[in-house]
Task: structure prediction
Amino acid sequence: MPSKSSARLAALTVAAACSAASTIVLTTPAHAESVRIHDIQGSTRTSPYAGKQVTDVAGIVTGIRAYGSARGFWIQDPAPDADPATSEGVFVFTGSAPKGVAVGDAVTVNGTVSEYVPGGTSSGNQALTEITKATTTVVSSGNALPAATAVTADSVPDAYAPEGDAAADGSINALPLHPSAYALDYYESLEGMTVRVADTRVVGATDPYTELWVTVKPHENPSRRGGAVYGSYGAQNTGRLQIQSLGTPAAFPKANVGDTLEGATTGPLDYSQYGGYTLVASELGTLESSGLERETTREQRSSELAVATYNVENLDPSDDTFTAHASAIVNNLQSPDIVSLEEIQDNNGSKNDGTVAADQTLDKLIDAVVAAGGPRYDWRSIDPADGVDGGQPGGNIRQAFLFNPERVSFADRPGGDATTATGVTKRRGKAHLTLSPGRIAPTDAAWEDSRKPLAGEFVFRGRTVFVIANHFNSKGGDQPLTSRYQPPSRSSETQRHQQATLVNAFVKDILDTQKNADVVTLGDINDFEFSQTAKLLEGRGELWSAIKSLPRSERYSYVYQGNSQVLDQILISPSIRRGCDFEYDSVHVNAEFHDQISDHDPQVLRFRP
Result:
């Protein structure tokens, strides 16, 4: 999939620079009206004054954003109405750094009410009510700020969102807000107002964009290490809230999951393209470290085969992470016998010049493993055709096998290439691959603009083990949890379902040929262990996702918007599962840390074939 950082930087550049391009005009402009902020916000998600000119909108300036593309200031009415559904705050979009206003100023604003959708209307994001094309008059300065509204475990409802209006394609925009019933309604009722959280636990580490995630509900689906586990589509973790800063990025805390922000974190409640409701902090709590450490799994015994999957996030020879990745493989994963790598890029990374070979990338990683004290791995992979496997343009990402030749041998059968499919044959009563390494149905439409599975046949202590390395298509294009459509659409599932069905059929061919074959199917599945994708991959018992052997508080490999969740999986055939002679470990070395070298945690399976 495309580089997360490059895609996001591009989006941040244009997110609010042209506000009019992403506005929803619900009414035709009319004569200017003198209204209060709560009249503008109304009791639904979109303003009854959208598209109208308003005058003499009174409020106290509570925050100024002078950087980024969404520049402007927030005002809040110090005399609220009695309706809990109507917010008393609003953002005044200026486009450039605001001049002539300061926090504590009492102002009146004239302008046009706009519903700005961060990321554009196709993103599914909710709209942010703003006043644009504004002229501002300062009435007085040095005024006391309206008291911040405390957001607490008791104030945030457990139910996440109402069901969308079927007549409006599932939109919740026009539904009356019920802030005491639904978390999204509660946060919407505070949009633009100054809010306060206190003594919150970090559930999403600080990212490169000076953001982190906290929870105001410390007992809501906690992980063993301090995160918030996303264990079903109905467990969205309503206490999660994104924190940004109105200050300089250098002053923002570098937090890991499980740390706490002690004391008050206070600021206006915004709505972000990347995370929905966001507290933009003018006051940040003090970071208290939990002492979270990177995990180390145990070393496999001589009779155990250790198989791992590790997404190394667009690794190419120009990266500076080889030493760190090698250390993770050797020290944290204890040098598994077989490692399935995802997101290995070609020899010149994102340079788009037709290069598809990745031998330099793999050799550099192997050399780094040796330097870290690990074995000299051998590798197998198949170069993709140029530009057809998705991912960062020019990068030609693919899966690759590393294996320790002192412990495992690889059954090489030539003929595998980007477009030739491997199959299953029987020899002397045993299943074998026709091509090893080989790709599974690489020309099927299910793999369009996506990585093709890599199948390999290994031998450990005289027993054949089939390993299938996967990297299913990403969740790009899915509507966010905070979408204006509820429940949000997960359109990317369609292709993953097709991919899972094909891989399961291939595994079924192996098991139909040899009932007791050892098959390990692993990789970045890009979907949850409870998802329909996983169910299709598991089939009717052909495979089973071994991460489900862990306690629920330990089932995660990725942290997204404060939710600790499963994307990386290792699935096993019945011959491995039935003996219960296996051990699974999600080795948390990346996803919970602000200084991660990949956004994925590697997974390790140990078993006796």
